[in-house]
Specification:
Elements: H1 3-62, H2 68-101, H3 108-160
Length: about 160
């Protein structure tokens, strides 16, 4: 065997290993960038939830016409929504860790899951909005009934007097 052939074979092997390592580094970099985007979106979503929660608390504190039973149901729904959100974020965290371990994992699976999570959250928000509208209508009815009772009591006192 000639030394020139061994040298050529060795050089080709080194090129192949270098090329393979470059590809792995590129895939790892792509995975890291995708993970960063997902984390940024999750953070933004958390900030939105924080804002919505503050809005909810402000409305809740200023509303005194709502009945206790309806408010408990509303709060339980919100608690359930937050639990689901927490579970989704935990799953997302695990998925990001797995992506960093295995750079060949596709993001299509994660995108589909995020889309499903978003659809579920939108459904919950729609239900929350619907319940809020019902509470507003009930509150207005109670207010009107209270005014009518006050008028009737006034008329009653005028008739007696």
């Amino acid at each position: 065997m000639k030394w020139e052939n061994v040298l050529t074979t060795h050089q080709e092997t080194m090129k192949m290993l270098t090329s393979s390592n470059a590809k792995v580094i590129e895939e790892s970099s792509t995975t890291a960038q995708a993970s960063e985007n997902i984390i940024t979106k999750a953070y933004e979503k958390t900030q939105q939830l924080k804002t919505k929660f503050k809005e909810f608390m402000a409305k809740f504190q200023t509303s005194s016409d709502k009945s206790i039973a309806d408010m408990n149901k509303f709060i339980e729904g919100f608690r359930s929504y937050l639990k689901t959100e927490k579970e989704s974020l935990s799953t997302l965290c695990v998925d990001i860790k797995l992506d960093n371990v295995d750079p060949n994992t596709t993001f299509t699976k994660h995108l589909t899951k995020l889309q499903n999570d978003l659809a579920a959250k939108n459904k919950i928000m729609d239900a929350l909005d619907e319940q809020t509208q019902k509470m507003k209508v009930l509150s207005e009815k109670v207010k009107n009934a209270t005014l009518n009772i006050a008028k009737l009591e006034e008329e009653k006192s005028l008739l007696k007097g």
